[in-house]
């Protein structure tokens, strides 16, 4: 068996500690990279299958995204991606790179 080291340019991102954190990071990245468009509805029943988590886990992740202002909730209607200006997006991009350096390669403008 031969061991091969990883190239030095790859930054290993930390593994999520909980299912909620994993869903939060995946959904957050998908919002930032445009997989979910601004103002689009985030359907829990669909997304729980996409991210392979339970509805409760996904709702907790969405609550964290509400706290980050990336998602907003409307009573009896569900969760939606927050509208975002280019200035907001650039600020978010810089904040993400500063707080989580491993995201730098994931977020392109």
Give a description of the structure.
This protein is mainly α and 109 residues long. It is 44% helix and 9% strand. It contains four helices and three strands; from the N terminus they run αβααββα. A hairpin with a 3-residue loop joins strand 2 (71-74) and strand 3. The N and C termini lie far apart (41 Å). Residues 98-109 have low confidence and may be disordered.
Strand order of the largest sheet: 1-3-2
How would you classify the helix and strand content by structural class?
mainly alpha
Order of helices and strands: HEHHEEH
* General shape: globular
How does the SSE layout of this entry go?
Layout: H1 19-32, E1 41-42, H2 44-50, H3 55-67, E2 71-74, E3 78-81, H4 86-99
Antiparallel strand pairs: 1-3, 2-3
Helix pairs in contact: 1-3, 2-3
Task: Identify the notable features of this structure and list them briefly.
single chain, 109 residues, mainly alpha, three-stranded antiparallel sheet
Question: Quick gist of this model?
Answer:
The chain is mainly alpha-helical and 109 residues long. Helices cover 44% and strands 9% of the residues. The protein contains 4 helices and 3 strands.
């Amino acid at each position: 068996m031969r061991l091969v080291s990883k190239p030095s340019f790859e930054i290993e991102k930390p593994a999520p500690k909980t299912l909620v954190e994993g869903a939060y990071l995946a959904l957050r990245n998908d919002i930032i990279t445009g997989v979910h468009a601004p103002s689009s509805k985030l359907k829990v029943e669909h997304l729980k299958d996409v991210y392979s988590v339970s509805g409760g886990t996904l709702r907790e992740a969405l609550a964290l995204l509400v706290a980050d202002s990336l998602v907003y909730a409307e009573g009896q209607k569900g969760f939606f991606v927050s509208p975002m200006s280019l200035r907001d997006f650039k600020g978010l991009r810089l904040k993400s790179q500063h707080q989580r350096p491993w995201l730098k390669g994931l977020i392109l403008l």
